[in-house]
Amino acid sequence: MQLRCGMQSVALLGVTTLALVLALAAPPKEEGKKKEEKPRADIATDDNLDLPNYDLSLDSYGEIIDLSLYEELYDYSDLAPKIEVGTLAPPTKRLEGVVSTRAMPTEAPRRPPLTSPTTKPFGPGLLGSITKQGLPTCLVCVCLGTSVYCDDAELEQIPPLPLETTYLYARFNRISRIRASDFARLKKLKRIDLTSNFISWVDEASFQQLSTLQELILAENRLTALPALPGSIVRLDARRNRIRSSGVRPEAFRELKKLQFLHLSDNKLDYIPVPLPEGLRSLHLQNNNIRTMHKDTFCDSQDHGHIRWALEDIRLDRNPINLSLFPDAYFCLPRLPTGHFY
């Protein structure tokens, strides 16, 4: 019995010694070699993922997905340029070859002058002469045949006009002066309409030299005197200005044999300008400061047989004058003037 127990102890000691020898003889594991990981049983795969129960909503979004896992752990502080206090930031370098889609202003091509700098450009051209704005007149204005329309074009002076201009309309602008050279070479002008400008001065002979001019309209300006007029004038309209009797030349209308319409209402006249041409048909002097008249203002007191059949429209209303005080002044008229008789 004792012999059997001894043999078992020797056998057990031998097995233990053999295991120890094998363990010490095994080659060491390489450093840096990753241990082979067994798949975790708790990781979900396509086979065991319960998709119907995966309910993603705004309320459970933070519970299901950990947003902190998506934060970048990269430190960008090293890339930022360091700026010391009291110094300027280093200039940034622009990328070469990058084409910008932003429109950049360019300088307009300069045109060579059509005339010398000391002379004013004239001539018809394709679209008219060059204006102060640097554009042809017929681009700033509208040219239709021989008519030029420059209404409300913010003009400060008369633009260079085509030589064939017959009718000029330059109303509602900022023109303050009429120069003698503005119409000097225009030999076919029949009508000039400069209504509602700032005209306060007209050079001598600016209109007198226009032998074909029939209508001159200067209403709603700042004139204090009437300009000299050509003998061809038929209609003069200078309403709503600041014209005084001292600004009308003596016998200014005597030689205007073709004048038919003389409208000077809403001014500062103190008396009726005389003598009036024989062919006059309409005389508007309402809203002035006329207080009296002469018995020969309209009629020839020495010729009671003379009748002025043409002069049918005389307006003297809104003047401080009592027309009933001058009964001998109307005997040659086909119709009494309009005004106060009291």
Q: What attributes does this structure have?
A:
342 residues; little secondary structure; nine-stranded mixed beta sheet; two-stranded parallel sheet; elongated; disulfide bond; glycoprotein; LRRNT; signal
How does this structure look, described?
- The chain is largely without helices or strands.
- Helix content is 9%, strand content 9%.
- The strands form 2 sheets. A 9-stranded mixed sheet has the order 1-2-3-5-7-8-9-10-11. It has a two-stranded parallel sheet with strand order 4-6.
- The longest helix is centred in the N-terminal third of the chain and has 24 residues, at 2-25.
- The radius of gyration is 52 Å and the shape is elongated.
- This is Opticin.
- Belongs to the small leucine-rich proteoglycan (SLRP) family. SLRP class III subfamily.
- Keywords: Disulfide bond, Extracellular matrix, Glycoprotein, Leucine-rich repeat, Repeat, Secreted, Signal.
- It holds the Pfam family LRR_8.
Give the rounded overall mean pLDDT: 77
Number of helices: 3
Largest sheet: spatial strand order: 1-2-3-5-7-8-9-10-11
Helix share, percent: under 10%
SSE string, helices as H and strands as E: HHHEEEEEEEEEEE
Q: What can be said about the biggest beta sheet? A: 9 strands, mixed
Termini separation comes to 174 Å
